Amino acid sequence: MEYGIIPLSLVPVRARASDESEMVTQLLFGEGIEVLSARAQWRHIRCLFDDYEGWIDEKQYVKTEKKVLEEALLQPAYSLEIAHSITNHTHHIPVVLGSFLPYFDGINLKMAGRSYWYNGQAYTPSEADEPRALLEKIVLKYHYAPYLWGGRSPFGIDCSGLTQMVYKILGVALPRDARQQADHGREVAFASTARSGDLAFFSNKNGDIAHVGIVLKDKRIIHAYGRVRIDRLDQQGIYNEELQKYTHQLRIIRRIF
Asked: Residue 249 burial by CB count (10 A; 0-12/13-18/19+): exposed, middle or buried?
């Protein structure tokens, strides 16, 4: 089986083996993949972080060994900068918030046999006593990011990408889609008892879970809807004061930690 690592800022993962196909998610710098099959220059891959599958261009990853990926994850570290560069003597690579920094020691990291340095803010989940205390600071870095179907960065993100990325930085692996995320954590009975960091899920007209956001203090919620925005949350759902109406119907609230 072939494995690889992403050496670029953001790589689109597509539904089919074509540049014209819909982007279903993105891979960030440092994320590992398993190659499932090949078709011309396209590779059908599985992201090792969340098991999400899709197609990427063979030119947008570098081969590595599974053992190398597993070793790098023993002490994970993530970029806390909205955008910053990792650098060596020949070039630099811009990386976005939540990018994985392999073998990071506070300044140095290694990627595909090359050494780099990174002097921006980073977060190592294993070194934190209370990750929930940092949650609001991290999620607010995405505030006003434009909505992008399949996006996972501050330059374009969807609702479940937002929740997944925030918890990824904090050391918690969530699935990619909202309906899958709703199976994690424990249920919170009422919106009035929700606390900062809880995930609130919302139903579409068919009764299916189709939206998710992160509860904030003071009965607010941050979610990706046109852009990453902050609205009011109650037992009925999300109330948008700009539109003077409810935009999402509350289905369930889950507490991850």
From this structure: middle
CA gap 249, 257 in Å, rounded: 24
Question: Hey, how many other C-beta atoms are within 10 angstroms of the C-beta on 147?
Answer: 18
- Looking at residue 67, the DSSP 8-state letter turns out to be H
How far is it, in rounded angstroms, from Cα 90 to Cα 179?
44
Q: What is the pLDDT of residues 52-111, one digit of tens each?
A: 999 999 999 999 999 999 998 888 999 999 999 999 999 899 999 999 999 999 999 998
Contact 215, 200 (CB under 8 A): yes
Inter-residue contact 159 to 225 (CB < 8 Å)? yes
Read off the pTM. Answer: 0.96
Q: Quote the tokens at residue 124.
A: 């190592």
In 129-235, at which residue ranges do the beta strands (DSSP E only) sit? 152-153, 156-157, 186-188, 199-203, 209-216, 220-225, 227-233
Which residues neighbour 39 within 8 Å (Cβ) at sequence distance 6 or greater? 17, 55
34, 3 in Cβ contact below 8 A?
yes
CB-CB neighbours of 6 under 10 Å: 25
Q: Is pLDDT above 70 for 43? A: yes
C-alpha atoms less than 13 angstroms from C-alpha of 213 in its C-beta half-sphere: 32
Collapse the DSSP code of 50 into the 3-class scheme (helix H, G, I; strand E, B; otherwise coil) and give the result.
coil
The C-alpha atoms of residue 96 and residue 25 are separated, in whole angstroms, by: 15
Is residue 221 within 8 Å of residue 212, measured between CB atoms?
Answer: no
d(CA 199, CA 179): 12
